[in-house]
Amino acid sequence: MMRREEGLAEAPGRRVKIAVKEGDGREGAENGDDASGPSLRAATQPALADFRPPYTYVATGSSQPSVTADGHQCQARSSLWLVPPADAPIAKQLSELIAVAIPAHFAHLTPPQFAPHITLTSEIDPQSYGNEPQEWLNQQISVSPASQPPVIFETLDTEQPFFRKLTIRVEKHPLLTELARACRAVGVAKDQSVAQKWVEDEYRPHCSLMYADTSISQQKLGEVKIALEDVQIKFKDTEQPRAGSIGGWVGGTVWLVPTDRDISMWQPIATRDL
């Protein structure tokens, strides 16, 4: 379980290199944004304010395996997310889209809410960070001020998996993929070459807007894309973006999230500003 607590100490200072340490290499069932298995619906809908800046949370419980809505036990796994900077307008825009604007286009659904993010990697064994998730994250992940990864929105997309039902496809920018590779190396892969191959062959960065068990027609997708552009979200393929439109963000905060839990409990147990 998690609880929100104001007034936490600021994240440690920035370093000027990406620190990489090999993980134990054990693979587990895919979870989080990359899952394509049984649906995981939130038991309750958290208030929108829970996901608005400042993102200040502390852990108060264990990371024991949880049970999904369909009664199956999850193997304990966590994910590393990149969330927008707390003071960036896009953080509020995406939160409102996920909580209000997108569900309004799907009146027959009650999709779960979650913080806007880009998954850097999933499948992290909690034994990697043990009882010191913040210390582990501080030691393993760091990016120099000159290498802040840009998140560039390419286009709106829909796929069959529950966790990729409605997403903004994100460009595989070299700085973003380098961060994802470093995260994969320290949290999952046995060595750097394995992590690099995963980034090249499997990593598809995206910003989820809705998790759902439904089909989205191309017509509906077009309607939603127009709705996003109406609220100043632009895409790389937008021919005439509106003045003041936002097409992504730069940098942000890395969250360590136990994504084997129910979606309503997806909150960070450690964070690190880039």
List the helices and strands and how they pair.
Elements lengths: L1 E3 L52 E3 L18 E6 L5 H13 L16 E7 L8 H8 L9 E8 L8 E5 L3 H14 L4 H10 L4 E5 L7 H13 L17 E3 L2 E5 L12 E4 L1
Antiparallel strand pairs: 1-2, 3-4, 3-9, 5-6, 5-8, 6-7, 9-10
Helix pairs in contact: 3-4
Relevant terms:
4-stranded antiparallel beta sheet, 5 helices
Low-confidence parts: 1-74
**Order of helices and strands, N to C?**
EEEHEHEEHHEHEEE
Average pLDDT, to the nearest integer?
A: 76
Rg, alpha carbons:
18 Å
Shape: globular
- What is the tally of beta strands? 10
Structural class: alpha+beta
Count the helices. How many?
Answer: 5
Largest sheet: 4 strands, antiparallel
End-to-end Cα distance, whole Å, is: 26 Å
The proportion of residues forming helix, as a percent range, comes to: 10-25%
- Give the strand line-up of the largest sheet: 4-3-9-10
Tell me what portion of residues adopts beta-strand conformation.
15-25%
